[in-house]
């Protein structure tokens, strides 16, 4: 198992580097850099002024060099203008003995956001924590409800209960978050409705309460719940028709013990993968809900970075997303072994 994890970690690092390089290349295309220069300066800047801005900030270097500097494995650029020396790793006027040569991701320096005028690492950490809080409550509601619905539906395939719960699952999955979110706001958060909850979750960033955090949590949970429930139902139905389940029935084992002691563990293998895949989906799929309820988390930052061509922030968001996807896949593979002892790591 240890060797397997080490191999997977090595593959994860290579995959993350490749995907990050692709994102770095796309964000550093010249039209994006030109737009960045004009955003920071003036939209009527001449081509010469754009070239001057990009040159002063190290954007005109070869792509591999820029990528290495961003990672922190290549010394940062240094430019001397009118006797003033400035660089990627130090400001103009910094004493020579205090100047750093390396300042990239490996050194904990993610750059500076051109939109928020703050350190990218701090922005990502803060917004990731807010989305993590939202994800925690979503998973706390979504996973138990989805498993319960799936198991109840799969225990007796074809029954009225199965058809009813399957219909509910399909409807919840078929309804996008922006539809259910708008409906919830209109019914439960407007003066024309019942006015039970708040239509904005901005206050939940500092203090999450039942009134200001329920609607975004339920909106996300309902959309993901149906998919997990359907997978659980299909897996449970398959397990209930297995030979060892029939043998247990013939031996007189009660139906409750058959479900809990024999069927449930094997039926959870496929849903476990789906549940783990919810984490990267929640991390990037909350864009609509966070925007709709004005909850300024990781998804909201992603929209701001992409819409304002904030290259450094967009790169950081992309790297975090890649790492989360790869880690959840690794945890999913390890979980297989513990859920089913018959599965062995080759």
Structure description:
Helix 2 crosses helix 3. The protein is 67% helix and 2% strand. It has two domains: 106 residues, no CATH class; 220 residues, Orthogonal Bundle (MetI-like fold), CATH 1.10.3720. Strand 1 and strand 2 form a beta hairpin. By secondary structure, it is mainly alpha-helical. A two-stranded antiparallel ribbon has the order 1-2.
Summarize this structure as a short list of keywords or feature phrases.
two-stranded antiparallel ribbon, mainly alpha, MetI-like fold, single chain, 2 strands, 346 residues, 67% helix
CATH class of the largest domain: Mainly Alpha
* Straight-line N-to-C gap: 9 Å
Shape by Cα distribution: elongated
Q: Major sheet, described briefly?
A: 2 strands, antiparallel
Number of domains: 2
Which secondary-structure class do the elements indicate? Answer: mainly alpha
* String of helices and strands: HHHHEEHHHHHHHHHH
How many distinct helices?
14
Radius of gyration: 26 Å
Mean pLDDT: 86
Per-chain topology:
Blueprint: H1 2-27, H2 30-40, H3 47-56, H4 63-71, E1 78-81, E2 84-87, H5 120-155, H6 160-174, H7 177-188, H8 210-240, H9 243-250, H10 255-267, H11 269-285, H12 287-292, H13 298-307, H14 311-339
Antiparallel strand pairs: 1-2
Helix pairs in contact: 1-14, 2-3, 5-6, 5-8, 5-11, 5-13, 5-14, 6-8, 7-8, 8-10, 8-11, 9-10, 11-14, 13-14
Task: Write a concise synopsis of the structure shown.
The chain is mainly α.
């Amino acid at each position: 198992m240890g060797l397997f994890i080490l191999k997977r970690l090595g593959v994860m690092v290579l995959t993350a580097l490749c995907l990050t390089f692709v994102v770095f290349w796309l964000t550093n295309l010249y039209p994006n850099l030109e737009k960045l220069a004009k955003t920071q300066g003036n939209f009527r800047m001449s081509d010469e002024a754009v070239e001057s801005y990009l040159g002063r900030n190290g954007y005109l270097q070869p792509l591999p060099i820029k990528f290495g500097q961003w990672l922190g494995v290549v010394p940062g650029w240094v430019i001397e203008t009118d006797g003033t020396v400035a660089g990627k790793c130090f400001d103009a006027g910094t004493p020579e003995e205090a100047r750093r040569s390396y300042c990239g991701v490996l050194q904990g320096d993610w750059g500076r956001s051109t939109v928020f005028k703050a350190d990218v690492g701090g922005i990502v950490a803060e917004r990731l924590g807010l989305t993590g809080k939202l994800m925690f409550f979503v998973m706390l509601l979504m996973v138990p409800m989805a498993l319960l619905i799936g198991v109840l539906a799969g225990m007796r395939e074809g029954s009225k209960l199965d058809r009813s719960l399957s219909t509910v699952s399909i409807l919840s999955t078929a309804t996008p978050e922006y539809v259910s979110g708008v409906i919830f706001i209109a019914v439960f958060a407007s003066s024309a409705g019942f006015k039970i909850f708040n239509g904005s979750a901005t206050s939940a960033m500092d203090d999450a309460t039942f009134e200001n955090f329920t609607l975004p949590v339920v909106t996300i949970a309902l959309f993901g719940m149906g998919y997990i429930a359907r997978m659980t139902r299909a897996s449970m139905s398959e397990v209930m028709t297995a030979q060892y389940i029939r043998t247990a029935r013939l031996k007189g084992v009660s139906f409750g013990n058959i479900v809990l002691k024999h069927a449930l563990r094997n039926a959870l293998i496929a849903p476990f993968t789906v549940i783990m895949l919810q984490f990267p989906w929640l991390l990037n799929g909350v864009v609509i809900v966070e925007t709709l309820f004005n909850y300024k988390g990781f998804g909201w930052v992603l929209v701001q970075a992409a819409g304002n061509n904030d290259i450094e922030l967009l790169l950081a968001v992309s790297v975090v997303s890649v790492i989360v996807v790869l880690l959840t896949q690794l945890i999913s593979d390890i979980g297989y072994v513990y859920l089913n002892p018959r599965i062995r790591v080759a």
